[in-house]
Amino acid sequence: MTKTILITGATSGFGAAAVERFLADDWRVVATGRRAERLQALVDKHGAERLHVAAFDIRDADAMQAALDAIPEDFRDIDVLVNNAGLALGTAVAQQASLEQWRQMIDTNVTALATLTHKLLPALIERRGAIINISSIAGVYPYAGGNVYGGTKAFVSQFSLGLRSDLHGTGVRVTTIEPGMAETEFTLVRTSGNQVASDTLYAGANPMTADDIASVIHYVATLPAHLNINRLEIMPVSQSVAGFQVHRGG
Ligand code: NDP
Ligand code: 8X3
Fold this sequence. Notes:
By secondary structure, the protein is of the alpha/beta class. The protein has helices at residues 13-24, 36-46, 61-69, 99-126, 147-166, 186-190, 195-202, 210-221; strands at residues 4-7, 28-33, 51-55, 80-83, 130-134, 173-179, 182-183, 208-209, 231-234. Helix content is 42%, strand content 16%.
């Protein structure tokens, strides 16, 4: 039977790659994001038989509800929710960071993710479905300039474990994927469009690709129904974690 997956943040990076991956595997896909022209390009490429797109700002709860209400009958039985839409803004240390950027990250990565999950939980329970939340290594390991971004991703990871606990006995699976460095539009967004900064970060590092993460999402989504991966931390071989820092001299 054809399954249905709702993927947020489907206009670029992991989400866009995941749309391609699941359509290629004959799933029905609901793809969301703000950039309507990119969503339309997906429809132009794949047609609308197994793809429904919804352009809205995920921070706008009314727009989210309207988009959910407008999902066509064929796409309403959502089996898998991929909470992928998110962003980092800025690389400044906390004492120099922008409060506006902090709020946008919290509104997007935390509040919107929780809101959409809340809205879809009854349907997911009914279908014994699955939730795949895209967190980050930034939610596990601190680094200078990671401050609120890391905090939002720590929320995502802990929220996932909490959901898993609450959903005990429902058959609903919950997985957190915590990727490290992957080359997408992530750094371009984080640096307000600084292509040089983005290219420099990834140069020579052989970072993960959006397709790598889409394959992991697909793997998790297609596991047998009795298996739950709680969390998956995944990095390029070129990246590892180094420990503590010590400041001397007062
Ligand atoms: P991209 O910038 O390529 O994609 C981010 C997606 O999120 C876009 O489709 C964007 O759509 C969507 N999005 C952002 N803000 C909103 C909003 N307000 N409303 C609706 N959609 C929104 O980055 P990635 O693919 O790399 O990021 C995907 C997820 O993976 C994020 O949660 C990110 O934090 C996480 N991540 C990324 C890593 C990396 O190294 N790339 C590593 C670990 C985690 P649009 O702009 O059209 O609205
Ligand atoms: C993105 C990974 O290390 O750039 O979530 O914060 S990192």
